[in-house]
Amino acid sequence: MPDRSHSAISGTKDFGCARNTVTRYLREGGALPFKKPVRRSAFDGPDDWLRERFFRHEGNADVIRQELSSEHGVVIGLRSVELRVRQWRRELKAQKRATVRFETPPGRQLQIDFGHPRMMPLAMTDEAE
Fold first, then answer.
1. How far is residue 44 from each of residues 9, 47, 51, 60, 88, measured CA to CA in Å?
2. From first to last of its 129 residues, what are the pLDDT tens digits of the chain?
3. pTM metric for this prediction
4. Half-sphere exposure of 33 (CA within 13 A, CB side)
5. CA-based diameter of the chain, in Å?
6. In angstroms, rounded to a whole number, what is the distance separating the alpha carbons of residues 77 and 67?
7. Of 11, 21, 54, 90, which one has the fewest beta carbons inside 10 Å?
8. What is the DSSP string of the chain?
9. Chain centroid offset of residue 84 CA
10. 75, 71, 67: which is closest to 42 by C-alpha?
11. For the stretch 62-91, what's the b/e string if a residue is b when 16 or more beta carbons lie within 10 angstroms of its beta carbon?
């Protein structure tokens, strides 16, 4: 960046940008990082409520969206709710996978396989002959 002796007009020719931009850069001492504006969100406030409902409804964002509308009067799109609860999906998946194995010694527990839910007609088996 040129020192203060350079004018804004010569800076526009050197850098190919607007005179206002060059003036601001000279005043600030260089380029400043972008400041993200702070905006209000429909989700400001009910974070604990949102998290509790997310786990209660096993990650169903549409049900959460409907409850936001009925209980808080917040009408919002499904995708917005999905993006907001995205941070908790990994935790929900881990909770679903986490199971406690229950092992018993041999001979203490019975496992039964009931087979197919439909029975074959007698005419299709070998016993019909």
1. 45, 7, 13, 20, 17
2. 545 555 666 667 777 778 888 888 888 887 778 888 888 877 777 788 899 999 999 999 999 999 999 998 889 999 999 999 999 999 998 888 886 677 778 777 776 666 666 655 666 555 555
3. 0.49
4. 2
5. 109
6. 12
7. 90
8. ---TTS-HHHHHHHH-S-HHHHHHHHHHTSPPPP-PPP---TTSSTHHHHHHHHHHTTT-HHHHHHHIIIII-----HHHHHHHHHHHHHHHHHHHH--------TTS--------SSPPPGGGSGGG-
9. 5
10. 75
11. eebbebbeeeeebebeeebbeebbeeeeee
Report residue 74: phi and psi, to 5°.
-95, 110
**What tokens does 36 get?**
């993200």
Retrieve residue 13's tokens. Answer: 């020719």
Place of tokens 């002959």: 129
